[in-house]
Amino acid sequence: MEIVPLKFKYIPEIVSWIKSEPDMVKWAGRIFTWPMTQKQFKEHIKEGKTQPQTLFPFVMVNDNRLVGYCELSSFHRHSDQASLTRVIISPEYRNKGMAKVMIKEVLNFGFKTLDLNRVSLGVFDFNEAAIKCYKNIGFLLEGTTRESAKAGNTYWNCHLMSILKREWKY
Ligand SMILES: CC(C)(COP(=O)(O)OP(=O)(O)OC[C@H]1O[C@@H](n2cnc3c(N)ncnc32)[C@H](O)[C@@H]1OP(=O)(O)O)[C@@H](O)C(=O)NCCC(=O)NCCS
Questions:
Q1: What is the CA radius of gyration of the chain?
Q2: Test site for ligand 1: of 133, 139, 161, most ligand atoms within 8 A of the Cβ
Q3: CATH no. for residue 127?
Q4: 103-120 tens-digit pLDDT
């Protein structure tokens, strides 16, 4: 397994994993509009190419096969923090511990290379696989924003979680 910066050639495959609007919102919140397109994803990546850089998109690959994608985003040097966002594993690789491997590598980059103090994330309260994975890594629950997103006719609660550098065990 190898974690490398995102290359645009991987975007069609990542977008193909998102089959419905609820899938899209569960994965990415509302930064994209349905139907999601490769163009929207590329725009998102381009917008992150600020000076200084605030977005660090990564893919995990195995023998040239794409396994997963995630980002460190909203990087702020003044508070030494960033968010873990857009975590997704290829459907064929799910439930094999791949997200844990990928996120640990990306946190290692965040805490060691970027010298972050805190990484936070948001996850919808019904997303049990993601919550379990984040808890296994050491993220702690900070609170819940109630009915803060809407998909179809349903409002979704969002758990806020974080991990600090002193809690980080690689
Ligand atoms: C969430 C996601 C990234 C997890 O990837 P993964 O590689 O399958 O995750 P892992 O195998 O590392 O960990 C999943 C954990 O949840 C558990 N799990 C899986 N499905 C579960 C379920 N329905 N209920 C409870 N736990 C579940 C697994 O057993 C595992 O825990 P364990 O290691 O203690 O056994 C993947 O399911 C995905 O891409 N989902 C779609 C996008 C998404 O929801 N992203 C998260 C946005 S916040």
A1: 15
A2: 133
A3: 3.40.630.30
A4: 999 999 999 999 999 999
Using a 10 angstrom Cβ sphere, with 0-12 exposed, 13-18 middle and 19 or more buried, the burial of residue 29 is middle
66-100: pLDDT as tens digits = 999 999 999 999 999 999 999 999 999 999 999 99
The CA–CA distances, whole Å, from 4 to 67, 70, 114 equal 11, 11, 16
* Per-residue pLDDT at 28: 98
Q: Which two tokens stand for residue 66?
A: 């794409």
Cα–Cα distance between 121 and 109 in angstroms, integer? 16
Nearest to 54 by CA among 34, 73, 80, 26: 73
Q: How many separate domains does the chain show?
A: 1
Q: Which amino acid is at 61?
A: V
CA atoms within 13 A on the CB side of 52: 7
For residue 50, the CA-to-ligand 1 centroid distance in Å is: 32
Provide the residue range defining the domain that includes 54: 2-167
